[in-house]
What does this fold into?
Amino acid sequence: MNKKYLDISYSEKKRILEMHRKHSNLIIEQDDEMDLYARTMFDNPDYDSERQKVKLVPKTTTTTTTIPQDVVTIKDKPLDVEDPTLKSKELETIETNNEEPKIITDAKKYIGAPYVYGQQGPSSFDCSGFVRYMLAQHGIIKNVSDTSKIGRTADAIYKSSNVKKKKLSDLKAGDLVFFGGSKKSHIGLVSKVDENDKGEKIFHMIHASSSSGVQDTDNPKLYTRNGVNKTSEWVERGISYGEIV
It folds into this structure.
């Protein structure tokens, strides 16, 4: 098994070893009947829980363990030692990779379905028909023909009182994305929110395209992976965001 190593100073090694000994002595004092297997773990800072065999240390024996001068395993390091393997950029990436909403997971099942103007599924869709179909499948609207909560077209949905307008900074997967000026002509579902190499926020969408049917812009075979908001052909059309409340 490969191990990761961390170079630290000799004084730091001594401090870690002393902490380890104090911790083991405290536990042993509290439980004088501790078995030899457990004692071995506390007495040995280099103990590896994945090893199949551990040398037992007699209760009356005092052992001295020397940490190698060049390395110390990260696995058993104290909590106050910074882990260099978790960089701040990596933590930011983890935070943006939230679990995919079920509406998006289900929407991807329809990728490849043809675009047909005026259709609301289940075998073909126009852009607003696809969004309405998915919303109906997840109980956000009563059924695909229900217009009591949101309108039928992209523009009517955008102007519905139950659609809260959003900013890019607040965008999340499952939100609505609209295209057009004063009158919206296209709509999709935000499928993924991410960051590009420059640390800028980007998003992808799943939508019913008039040229290729239902597609996800995260597909590199059909689209660039720069993100919808970083692709000129989409930006030039005007982008707005919203969610149903």
User: Anything to note?
Assistant: The longest strand covers residues 184-195.
